[in-house]
Give the backbone structure.
Amino acid sequence: MEFTARQISDLLQGTVDGDADVKVRGLSKIEEGKPGDLTFLANPKYTSYIYSTKASLVIVNKSFVPEHKIMPTLIRVENAYESFVHLLEIYNQIQKDKKGIEQPSFISDSAKLGLDCYIGAFAYVGNNARIGNNVKIYPQVYIGDNVIIGDNTTLFSGAKVYSDCVVGSNCTLHTGTVIGADGFGFTPNRENQYQKVAQIGNVIIEDHVEIGANSTIDRATLGSTIIRKGVKLDNLIQIAHNVEIGENTVIAAQTGVAGSTKIGKDCMIGGQVGIVGHITIADKVKIAAQSGIGASITAEGEIVQGSPAFNIGDYKRTYVVFRKLPLLEKRIKELEQMISDLRQITS
Amino acid sequence: MEFTARQISDLLQGTVDGDADVKVRGLSKIEEGKPGDLTFLANPKYTSYIYSTKASLVIVNKSFVPEHKIMPTLIRVENAYESFVHLLEIYNQIQKDKKGIEQPSFISDSAKLGLDCYIGAFAYVGNNARIGNNVKIYPQVYIGDNVIIGDNTTLFSGAKVYSDCVVGSNCTLHTGTVIGADGFGFTPNRENQYQKVAQIGNVIIEDHVEIGANSTIDRATLGSTIIRKGVKLDNLIQIAHNVEIGENTVIAAQTGVAGSTKIGKDCMIGGQVGIVGHITIADKVKIAAQSGIGASITAEGEIVQGSPAFNIGDYKRTYVVFRKLPLLEKRIKELEQMISDLRQITS
Amino acid sequence: MEFTARQISDLLQGTVDGDADVKVRGLSKIEEGKPGDLTFLANPKYTSYIYSTKASLVIVNKSFVPEHKIMPTLIRVENAYESFVHLLEIYNQIQKDKKGIEQPSFISDSAKLGLDCYIGAFAYVGNNARIGNNVKIYPQVYIGDNVIIGDNTTLFSGAKVYSDCVVGSNCTLHTGTVIGADGFGFTPNRENQYQKVAQIGNVIIEDHVEIGANSTIDRATLGSTIIRKGVKLDNLIQIAHNVEIGENTVIAAQTGVAGSTKIGKDCMIGGQVGIVGHITIADKVKIAAQSGIGASITAEGEIVQGSPAFNIGDYKRTYVVFRKLPLLEKRIKELEQMISDLRQITS
């Protein structure tokens, strides 16, 4: 793919400053730009690079005034960062515009496929599955019986959805994501052998959800594990049975949420956090990485850290003293000596 | 599937109270019951729901005496919870009763399959593999050369078993589970380049073991990594080479056990726990979530927390003081001032 | 496979002590040796086993002088441990010497395969992919469009490489490894809905890298996530977008590295460590398991522990006092009482 500065400027509703016929083929960071690359300048601390970059075309803010001579052609727009992100998105869509059904794939006779789908080789679509329009099912994906997948959703290679689960529209499930494996439910008998409690619920994933590689979301014992609209989950995350995660909450990699916990909307949860089962986290709560949450958080917007976690400001102040503990012990020892001396004097 | 109250009552050896011909098609929680649903009442704190539930059929304890009028038909049994769990199990077995060999699948000519197996499309069964009776191998599963799988075991879509490993009977391996990848064994040379130590042992999984989604159990360098009878592992767990886990031990999600460690039987290990290599954990030990175990635990039934972990009661008492550290420091400062004042007075 | 003591001795350039015609078929630890097994004695603390082992053949150091009668044949070599590791490697290569293209597999017409490759059934090789010589692609592996794989690299069953990524030569990617899934990049809009930032960069893995089961390495937003020559990653590790890991660094299981962080060479990082984004870790740094790294580490060879981490010696001294905190509080209380008493006396 090759585009001229003019074509891109028209797409972004910008204005061209320099050679409008210069052609670009790739996207790069401004400090790594090569001839034929398109890049952008938004953060003022990168400004110096615009005088040295080898890129052929740079998107800049309308307001940008160069202080030295500039080699690349410029496209001036309202917001250079947003325009560049928009271009990334278009580039990505062109790159990943897969269509058609590759062979061999396995599509049950009772499954229903929407229009314009991509079904990669070795993908499996089970009985009575319903697949929306423009869904991309990459190679080696597994869609169990009775699964529903909404329009415009992408399942990358090897994503797996167990039977009876529901995935919304405009979702992205990355490779190795497992939706709907059995929740971890067992009851011990007298010999401490664990009897399985069958997990016959499902997982419901609403629209505009993205789930990272190798994350696991277990099906409910009864009812549904629910991931609300707009949730973004990173890689290697564990969501246990009957959990509910509120709208637009984002969770970083390797965090785990135990069974039946309900997390509010607009929360931001760091990486490697552990959250126990059967609690409630209020809306807009922020949890620092590696924290352990052992009880409900009821105050909206609370920010916590630690294992077990408490208010992040208090935690940071506490940790400052923690690092001085050997010194503190020494001061106590000295006090004890001084007191002992004083008591001898005053006795 | 549709059943009458009488059919279910017969199955559970219960007695019907109300319309014995009412038909049910699904299972639900009592607070979410819809017409056509079967539910149960066991925990007294849910009793109020039996007067408002829309479910058609409720399993209750024999001893239950309603205080108001009840709409649904009741089935009275010895233990409502156990009866319901039993129904879940039957429901689950009917739902997942897959049989036959889907095409295309790959079964080596030298592999042996038992009776009544399910082999999903795109599943791979390697040379000399021996598969027991009634084994369910879902689509995209990989069974390496010389692997042995016992009777009644289920491998969900995309589970992978490397060559030479052994899986017992009545086991469940969830999607993305990896059995028998190489242990992490390298020795540095003079230039600090790491030379691989070939891992030629295997993994042995005994009977009645369940392993969650995307967990990894590495093969031994020599000999075997061993998961004993009745062990239950949650999702995203790492078990390193030459580890042994004792009978009926349960481990929650995202925990990791380093190489050559031996864990006793009947242990309960929380989520996100880390256990170093080459140590021994006694029987019936309990480890709180996010703990780090850096040394052997020799006392049977010990309960520990922290990183590094120690007795859980001590840990909790310690953490209470930890949270007050800034205050403690202030008290020490005040003591120092008071002592200083006193010394001036007494000098 | 069966070999005589003489054949193995010739291979190792050793000398035979005993029956040179004795035949062996397997490798084992000295304490578990059975007739027909080959084992070794290197660590003096295992010496006693050489008098009781049932193994048929034992590799020993040249310098070994038995104190009692020995049943097995001995092979004397310069370094028994290194010779045995060398044999493990040969044994492993023979066991895993897969060749040829199994059917059905999917190889794009525009892909190029080197000589002597193994392509397992249900493996997928995308458009314009370039696969080197002697590459082993196990069943159900996914190689996206434009991917480059170097010579002698092995991808075990179900490893997945997204489009445009580059894997060097002599690498090993274990089952479930995901190379090149999208980095976790979103920007919130006014309604706190997160807009995806397209991730159009790639992952570059240099030569002699090994990556464990179910680890995930995200593609860069722009440019490349880079894993340098000789890096060894264990299982279930998360490497975020635009990270760079220096040569010969080793990382244990379940560790996570956030976006744009640069780790030096020859580092040793324990399991379950979390490292924040946008920082730099110097060469030869060691990080204890479960630590949290919240800021750059600039001193070469620094060893740290804790969350947040600091010098490991200081951490250990601090933790000793931490465990005594309830006692420390008691001592402060006593001091306060004593001071109060003293002030009354002196007032």
Notes: The radius of gyration of chain A is 28 Å. The longest strand of chain A covers residues 37-41.
